[in-house]
Amino acid sequence: MRDIRGWAVAGLAAVSLAAGAAWISTGEAQTRQDPRATTTAPPRPSITALVARPRGGVDWQAAVGGLRQSANVGESLAANLNREQVDKTAVPILLPRDPKLTAGARIYSFGDYYTITADTLGGGVSLSGTTTTVPAGKPLKVESGPEMLTVQRTVDGQLASFVRFGVLYTVEIRCDAAGDPRCVDDNYVLGLVGKTTAVVMGKAARQAAGLGG
Fold it and tell me: What is the pTM of this model?
């Protein structure tokens, strides 16, 4: 299993929004264990980073609208995620409408930040959502579109970020082989962004949205 700390830091460190610095630190992460799995549990992740908070907060009205549009699709896709981690996540969770991808996914929640990882043949995918961001190390390729979509080539893949409901989301594909077509250009990651529309809310998010626990 990949080092979760590497996934989480890569997902955050690629994007920067408006200024105003603050510090965040970690929470613990857990996953629902597949009884057929033989791998050991990952070490507790640790993130401490200088962050800048974007203007405004979560647009809960829009998020609730997205939740209703998702109907039961989001909950179905999230069935294999650790429910305790889902419930402690205080932002709307976005999942790709791809049951095969989410079937083996693992979630790690830090309250106002979460990361989800999933293994794929010859690589892996990570998704994250946060109300805080870290400054990017280099300029990003900015795509046109209403969601402030950006795409960046990483060492071993492609990373896209966008804003929805006032939350910064990232979608990343990593490939074991340098010539893997999913990572050579941004077509695959942009297609995955297009599918990442199913909204899931746990207890903390529902309470913040005024829906109760």
Answer: 0.71
